[in-house]
Amino acid sequence: MRIQVNARNRGFEFDARSRESVLYAGLRAGIDLPYECATGTCGTCKAKLISGRLHDGWREAPGRKYVKPEQHEFLMCQCAAEGDVMLEVSKFVYAMEPGACTPDACTGIVRAPRRLAHDVMAFGVELEQPRDFDAGQFVLLAPAGLPGYRAYSMCNFERGGRQLDFVVKRKPDGGFSEWLFGADREGERLETFGPLGKATFDPALAKNLLCIAGGSGIAGMMSILSRAARERYFDRYRGWVFFGVRMMRDAFFLRELSAFKRQGLEITVALSDEDVPPSARSEWPELGFARGPVHEVAKRMMAGKYQEVRAYVAGPPPAVDAAIRVLLLEAKLTTDNIRYDKFS
Amino acid sequence: MTKRLVCRVADVPENGLRECEAEGGLRLVVANAGGEFFGVQAVCPHQDVPLCEGLFDGSVLTCHMHLWQWDIRTGAPLGLAEAPLQRYPLALEGGSLYLGGDATALDVGELFNGIAAGTIDSLAALARRESYQAGAMLYRPGDPAEDFFVLDSGRVEFLVGRREHIAPGGFILRKGEVFGWAALLDGYPARIASARCLEESALLRINGKAALRVLEGDPAAGFIVMRRLAALIARYLASSGVK
What residues does each domain of chain B span? Predict the structure, then answer.
């Protein structure tokens, strides 16, 4: 199927596979179509059908509240072409830069699932083909038999990598997390599409790094910090990590974060629902601990230190919104220095 | 013009926002910028997010959803924002705010907004208002590029190339967007694309040389306009990493 996209600045043409969403086909062709979640929630990939027919794979997608079906609007991440189609995207669209990690579909195998905390699981995905992915990116995962993709940030980064590492927090009605926690999934197959996401980090940034993460939002931070640490970035720039969890029993990656501390970062674990137990400080002497929501702890401890700062924020939407409010209104960061990833 | 009540001054907190419905039905957001009041469109031009839920520090308004930002005084986009805000001039009378006339396409335009009122007036005097039906052709490749256009309403698409090698060259749809800007450049006497109205459209047509003479008389405005024109052209050349 041939897809033509008319954007504000120019047109693009590319081919789509059978049942492949318009968004994934375009991204795979190296066209930087607008998206944020790529999984039907945020509405960023809204487009307008000019001619041809589409199949909507998920009519109940939460992001449909942003589209006007009577004006032929649709979500590119959820709709596949049935024959040639022409569509309009009311944004400036460009080809991806040379060297960007172009996403594609790839089959993978679950490797070494293991519990990190009572409701947090780590696992790897071994890919059939090697892929490039940058620090801070995410991929979409779909286990066999479970409808639709879910987005998860990698904890690692690689060029020509075969292994993706993830952490997943158990959610009451989260289809993927129930699948993962429900049985031993070692060796099971899943489909992947990626890498995606522009909240990436490159050491050429040359700024101090502030990471504010709620819960499993720490995953993407780990890849960013690993990338920075590998280049000995923190010999030259400062780094702060604020990791928000409810209670000590929810925390994980504390050993890995302690290792980053030895590279010169300041790391604070924020506990929103309990006072810091004395054992936390004796068990993890290299980490700081504080009581409070993560954005408030960060606000308290970062006052006066926002010069030349790039902030990365990830976690549940209320936590991310609260942190962004602090970064804009208190820290006076410009929006290009705030990179965020809202789980939704 | 009949006065349309928007709200009472006391209803808008200091350095805060309030969504109001003006008499007659228009919804807008009123911002209190240190005791000065500015009216802008109620929803973000990006997605349908209410701007009253945004962040406002007394001068910059930020939509909380994707961090688009604007200068509240001019509606001009800042940072990540790809479109200006429609402004609604407000008049203060006896503790209440009233809606004035709508800002014109030149006032809100991406090239001219915020420049001296006298210069805007001189440009407005050069402008000829034209209306076109859907499908109307405004120019074709090779046509003389003497005039530029400011969109007031409607939608215009561009096609590049000739005969069987025609490719889409983008489209414009926002009030105040400028096209046909070859007329403002030296050494580009002819059109390189065709421009066609996709729907019923209203335009301001302005002679490029005459506009340049106006700007020569106000070099501060001319400098702003040329900077913005350079940014606008660069945007068509940019790659994805830039914006």
Answer: 4-103, 117-237
